[in-house]
Amino acid sequence: MPTLEDVSRIAAALPGTEERRMTGGRAWFVRNRLFAWECHPWPSIPDDMRAIIASELVVAVKVADPLDSLALLDMAPEVFLRSTTRWSEPKVAFRMAEIDPDHLAELVIEAWFTQAPKYLRRTLDAT
After folding, report:
1. Which secondary-structure segment (H or E) carries 67?
2. For residue 98, with 0-12 CB atoms within 10 Å meaning exposed, 13-18 middle and 19 or more buried, which class applies?
3. CATH number of the domain at 4-119, out of 3.40.190.10, 3.40.50.1010, 3.90.1150.30, 3.60.15.10?
4. Exposed, middle or buried: residue 83 (CB in 10 Å: 0-12, 13-18, 19+)?
5. Per-residue tens of pLDDT for the chain, all 127 residues
6. Residue 121, SS3?
7. What's the per-residue H, E or C state across 77-111?
8. Cβ neighbours of 112 (radius 10 Å)
9. Cβ atoms < 10 Å from Cβ of 71
């Protein structure tokens, strides 16, 4: 099962990434733009989703388009949560216990790409 350390390792390999401890847990930013974070069972989250987040590790990442999150949910509803909050949309939240390590890396890297400035994306593309 992947852990937050795996998310941290993947994110740290991406240019301009900074990890911060937030009220709700750990979060990863690229040039002060949030791209991945540990979910917290905030009161504004629907009850059924809050119960999942309270009982297991859930991470959310930014996606390029709301349709991307819908496609992921349709593809693997046992992994991806249908909704959390409207904050930081578009995004997708997923159960760490159910995510494949390669898919985790893909999600984190794609989230970074959605938030990173062009010059950093070019830096990563060059390597």
Report:
1. helix 66-75
2. middle
3. 3.90.1150.30
4. middle
5. 899 999 999 999 999 999 999 988 999 999 999 999 999 999 988 999 999 999 999 999 999 999 999 999 999 999 999 877 777 789 999 999 999 999 999 999 999 999 999 999 988 776 6
6. helix
7. CCCEECCCCCCCCCEEEEECCCCCHHHHHHHHHHH
8. 27
9. 14
Residue with tokens 């900074």: 18
Radius of gyration of the CA atoms of the chain, in A: 14
- The alpha carbon of 76 is separated from its chain's Cα centroid by a whole number of angstroms, namely 16
Q: Of 57, 95, 53, which is closest to residue 73 (Cα–Cα)?
A: 95
Going 71 to 73 to 76 to 12, the CA torsion angle's sign is positive
And the tokens for 95? 């159960």
Q: Which residue reads 């540990």 in tokens?
A: 38
**Domain residue extents for the chain:** 4-119
